[in-house]
Specification:
Number of strands: 2
Number of domains: 1
Oligomer: single chain
Structural class: mainly alpha
Distance between the termini: 30 Å
Strand order of the largest sheet: 1-2
Radius of gyration: 18 Å
Helix content: 55-70%
Low-confidence stretches: none
Shape: elongated
Length: 108
């Protein structure tokens, strides 16, 4: 969820800078970070994220004459995708803790 929040912030920053010349868009690739985190405990991943070892990438390709690499449509789609991912993660987390609560209460 931390990574989804970080990505949402970067995407909003990209959207805010859509008309700034020479601005290079920033993004986080969930798949890369998920692969890195698969062998790492959650606490260790959170620590790595906090220390900056989990980084975001900057897109160097530019489609416009002003060297700005932000595509408005792609950013809006990425924001919507990240929002859905965050909502799914929130639901999974809620169900997990609800299950723990049920176990603690012995199913009552």
């Amino acid at each position: 969820m931390n990574l989804a929040s970080e990505r949402q912030g970067l995407l909003m920053k990209n959207l805010a800078n859509v008309n700034v010349p020479n601005y290079k868009r920033q993004d986080i690739d969930f798949n890369v970070h998920l692969d890195e985190a698969m062998g790492v405990e959650a606490d260790e991943f959170d620590q790595a994220f906090a220390k900056g070892r989990v980084r975001h990438s900057e897109s160097q390709s530019s489609l416009r004459e002003d060297k700005n690499s932000v595509d408005l449509e792609a950013e809006v789609m990425s924001i919507a995708e990240t929002e859905h991912r965050f909502l799914a993660l929130t639901e999974l987390t809620s169900r997990y803790y609800s299950g723990l609560k049920s176990v603690i209460r012995e199913g009552r």
